[in-house]
Amino acid sequence: MSAASVTPVDLSITPRDRRFAREARPGRWWHGGNPYATAFYNALSATFPKGEAFFVEAVRNHREGAPAKLAEEIKGFTTQEAIHSREHDMFNKAVIEAGYDLGPLEARVQFRLDFIRSKPPIASLASTMALEHFTAIFAHELLADPRHLAGAEPEAQALWRWHSIEEIEHKGVAYDTWLHATRHWPRPKRWKVKAKVMLLATRNFTLDRTLGAIELLRQDGITGARAWFGLLWFMWVQPGMMRKIFSAWAKFFLPGFHPWNEDDRHLIVAYEAEAALGRESERKVRRAA
Questions:
Q1: What share of the chain is helix, strand, coil (3-state, %, to 5)?
Q2: Is residue 205 in some structural domain?
Q3: Does 139 map to a domain?
C-alpha cells in the first residue's frame, strides 16, 4: 500500500467541530435568491447525513491491519465525517422548515445505499473511494472559484466552505484504505474494478442529484423546460461546477492516479487565514460593544 500512496507524510487531519444553521437559518432561496442554485446544493446536502455515515462504516470495516499512519488518518476521517453528517442534518432541517420535502431525495439515497450494502463489503469501500474523489474535486472547485457560492447567505457559505476544506484534507483516506484492502490484487483487476465502480457512481450521482434538484424546483412551482434549462445551465454552463470538475474526474482513470497527486492544501491555508481574520473581527466587535 505504501508504495502506491502519495499522501503527504506531514498531513494532519484535524476535525473542526463547528456548528451552523442554529441561530441564522437559511432562507428558502438562500443561494442569492436563485432557485436553481439553491435546489442544486439542497439536493447535494440531502445526501450527506446518510451518505457520510455510510462512508465511515465502509472505511472502518477495512481498517484492520492498516499501517499506523493510515489508521490514524482513518480516525480523523471518521470524526470529520461524523461532524459533517451532524451539520448537514441540521442544515437539512432548515431546508425542511423553509418549506421543502426532502423525503423523496432521502429515499433515493437509502435505496442506493441498501443496494451497495447487499454486495460484499469491498463494494462499499470501492463506492466510498469513488464518491470521496467526487466530493474532493467538488470541494477544490468550490473553494478555488468564489463564483460557485457568490450571493449565498453567509451562514450557508460558511457551512459549504468549512465542509470543503475537510473534504480536501481527508481526500486520500478512502483511496489509501482501498489500496490496503486490495494490496494482494493484481493491478489490472484493481484498475478494472475501480473504473467500473467510478462509472457507475458517476452515473448514479449525476442522475440522482439532477432529479433531486428537479423535484425541489417542482415544489417551488418551477417545472418543465424552465426547470431543466435553468438547472442544467447552472450545473454545466455558468458557473458550471459539473463541467469544471470533468478533467479532475477523468484523472481517476489514469495509471498511477492518487488523490494527492495534486497537493491543494493551499486552499485550506487560505480558508484558515480568512477564518482567523473573521474571528478576530468578531472579538473586536464584542469588545467594542
A1: 70, 0, 30
A2: yes
A3: yes
Answer yes or no: is 281 within a domain. no
Q: Region 40-50: what's the mean pLDDT?
A: 97
| Cell numbers that stand for 101 in this block | 420535502
Instruction: For 235-275, write each residue's pLDDT tens digit.
Output: 999 999 999 999 999 999 998 999 999 999 999 999 999 87
Domain assignment present for 191: yes
Contact 74, 63 (CB under 8 A): yes
Q: What is the 3-state secondary structure (H, E, C) of 117-132?
A: HCCCHHHHHHHHHHHH
Cell of 248: 479532475
**What pairs with residue 31 in β-bridges?**
152
The vertex-17 CA angle with 43 and 69, nearest 5°, equals 100
For residue 287, give Cα distances in angstroms to 133, 209, 275.
Answer: 43, 45, 18
Provide the number of structural domains found in the chain: 1
Name the β-bridge partners of 152: 31
Q: The dihedral of CA 200, 204, 206, 207: what is its sign?
A: positive
Selection from 122, 93, 100, 104 nearest residue 28 by Cα: 100
Residue 91 burial (C-beta neighbours within 10 Å; 0-12, 13-18, 19+): buried
Q: In this predicted model, what pLDDT tens digit does every residue of 112-150 receive, in sequence order?
A: 999 999 999 999 999 999 999 999 999 999 999 999 999
Q: Which domain holds residue 41?
A: 35-264
- Output the pTM of the full model: 0.92
Strands (E), 66-201: none
CATH number, domain at 212? 1.20.1260
Q: Are 133 and 173 in contact (CB under 8 A)?
A: no
